[in-house]
Design goal:
6 strands, mainly beta, Thrombin, subunit H, six-stranded antiparallel β-barrel
């Protein structure tokens, strides 16, 4: 298998919330475990199987610099889903990441890669 990622992914175990943006009645889903993250995307466990291309709004609290917490909000789209035992491993590509959020993500990745 050829690795096509431009940004290395880093293992983490934080919780995220997400909301599907393809339905006006979609509710926030909390407690999704983020398994790995990069500047361009992440892998998390979801209890629902979402189709590829599903647009999402993601929120998570990350730690930056000297353990300071920061909340980030990201838009993304589902790029792959794999069946798990009780959940679905959901791969997401971030879309439209502003510079402040990108800076916070970079600081978080620096924090967890130590």
């Amino acid at each position: 298998m050829i690795e096509r990622r431009k940004h290395q992914r880093y293992k983490t175990h934080i919780l995220a919330g997400y909301k599907r943006l393809d339905s006006p009645i979609s509710a926030w889903q909390a407690e999704a475990e983020v398994k790995n993250i990069s500047l361009r995307g992440m892998l998390f466990s979801a209890y629902e199987k979402m189709p590829v291309e599903t647009p999402l709004l993601l929120k998570m609290q990350i730690f930056i610099e000297d353990s300071t917490a920061a909340m980030v909000e990201l838009h993304g789209r589902v790029v792959g889903v794999e069946d798990g035992i009780i959940s679905y491993d959901t791969r997401v590509e971030f879309t439209d990441v502003d510079n402040l959020t990108k800076t916070k993500l970079r600081q978080f990745i620096d924090y967890i890669s130590r």
